[in-house]
Amino acid sequence: MSSVQSNQPYGKDSVSTPIQLTEGWHHLDYRYYEGWGGQNINKAVMTDSSGNVTDLRDFSANQSAMMTYTPEFADMTIDGNYTLGKDGKIIMEIDLTSGEHDRLITTEDLELNGELFIVLSGELNDTYEFELFDTAEGQTMDFNFASIDFEGIFNDAYYWDLRGLMAGGDGILRFDRNSVPEPATWALLVLGAFGLGYLRKTRKNSARA
């Protein structure tokens, strides 16, 4: 499941762009204002393979399990250009075991600001590159994320090559295989740490004697 949030200042006109939803559940959370009042609409919508809505429910804590605990990986295609504002947030999910992941695609230019949250599940397998963002041929992608945060295994940015999600990037998140020692290296590190500890203990006992 991919999630996009973009905040607009009060009184500013917003332009909507049609999107094609893939089959399955989608979380819709949007707000609109009239005068000093405000309304919040939080729904979960089920669509079929043709994009037709087959079920619509209020999104509450009782129904959140269908969205939270079972990751859904899909392409979200926007017919047109898309800009995520500086106050916006976008959440992308990746299954490291299968290599499946969310992907945001636009037929025109794509500009992303704000915050990017990447939710990781599974165990790292044979896939080391994940194309999270793409545009039609000849269109531009402009990445200006204020922050990129990870949740799950390998949730430290140290493990990842983020250049594909920065200015001039190609929209691909890459796992830095050099950041994880080989099994033999792990063994040497463990033995080295054990030997260093033993040496310190021996020296300490010798000093006391």
Summarize the entry for a quick read.
This protein is mainly β and 209 residues long.
Mean pLDDT: 72
Main sheet record: 4 strands, mixed
- The number of helical elements comes to 2
Structural class, from helix and strand content? mainly beta
Q: In oligomeric terms, what are we looking at?
A: single chain
Shape: globular
Strand content: 35-45%
- Low-pLDDT parts are 8-15, 61-69, 183-190, 196-204
> What's the helical proportion of residues?
10-25%
Radius of gyration, whole Å: 23 Å
Q: How many runs of DSSP E, i.e. beta strands?
A: 17
Largest sheet, spatial ordering of strands: 1-8-11-15
Distance between the termini: 65 Å
Taken in chain order, the helices and strands follow as: EEEEEHEEEEEEEEEEEEH
Q: What is the domain tally?
A: 2
Can you describe what's shown?
The longest helix has 26 residues, at 183-208. The protein is globular. The model is unreliable at 8-15, 61-69, 183-190 and 196-204 (pLDDT under 50). It contains two helices and 17 strands. The chain has helices spanning 65-68, 183-208, and strands at 3-5, 19-20, 24-34, 37-47, 53-58, 75-78, 82-84, 89-95, 103-106, 110-112, 115-121, 129-131, 133-135, 141-143, 147-151, 160-161, 172-175. The chain has a four-stranded mixed sheet, with no helix packed on it. Strands 2-6-9-13 form a four-stranded mixed sheet, with no helix packed on it. A three-stranded antiparallel sheet has the order 3-4-5, with no helix packed on it. Helices cover 14% and strands 39% of the residues. The protein is mostly beta strands and 209 residues long. The protein has two domains: 3-175, no CATH class; 184-209.
